[in-house]
Amino acid sequence: MKTIRTTAAMAAWRRRLHREGVTIGFVPTMGALHDGHRSLIRAARMTCDTVVVSIFVNPTQFGPTEDLSNYPRQLGLDRALCLTEGVDVVFAPERRTMYPPGAQTVVAVPAIARRWEGEARPHHFQGVATIVTKLLCLVQPDITWFGQKDYQQAALVQQLMKDLNFPGRLIVHPTVRDSDGLALSSRNIYLSKIHRQAAPVLFRALEAGSAAIHAGERRGASIQRRMARVVAQEPLAVLEYLAVCDPITLEPVSRLPRRVVLLGALRIGRIRLLDNTLVSFRDKV
Ligand code: PAF
Description:
By secondary structure, this protein is of the alpha/beta class. The protein has eleven helices and nine strands. The site of pantoate has 10 residues, from strand 2 and helix 7.
């Protein structure tokens, strides 16, 4: 396994591989790799000749009051996981090679970034769209894997790749969960024991929303209220949003189309938790 630290070395490696005609699978990450990342890497390993994992805590997607300096960094452990999973290249650039002095171009996907995480974290998605564009230009993957846990991020990248004519394909991989339903996230390690016990409430709320749809409820507001009632039962949870949305535009729906995404975010202590579930149904006519 090779570790590449500069954009120039990454571009040179990519040019060489292009001549060999192999397929490249790409998993972009900010490190602190867990079993959710592992499942993305395994899917890439099974599908492509060569697998690249990027590890870069991207400063431009953090707000001034967010946890950039505290974000978990463990390159040694991450490299070990990648080695075990048969990754070919870890691309772990320094900040100055990704954003050299004078860099000023940004990428924005305004409509998808407008609501939900975009409202809670202004500038976050511009940072994500910019770094993902830069990574895709450097790695030029045939297939890129994103986790479904960050649903809005995956939807935004899908739109970005379409709008900017990136030739590769995006695969959104199902969320990996602990046995009590909590979606795996690099930030979960910061949950205290008592907060960890409270955290699956978000998953339970989404499950309640999904159950209501399968029981025949078709009104977005009513499903939203059912989910909110579940969260209200957990005193440690501070609800940010629960929404019933179109799975592509992420706009809220009042009458359900055949497929919706239920999105949720809440705070437990200082940790924000995100989760979502896709629900499809077919009404009898
Ligand atoms: O989901 C993440 O880990 C990051 O937002 C990403 C896509 C690697 C961009 O920094």
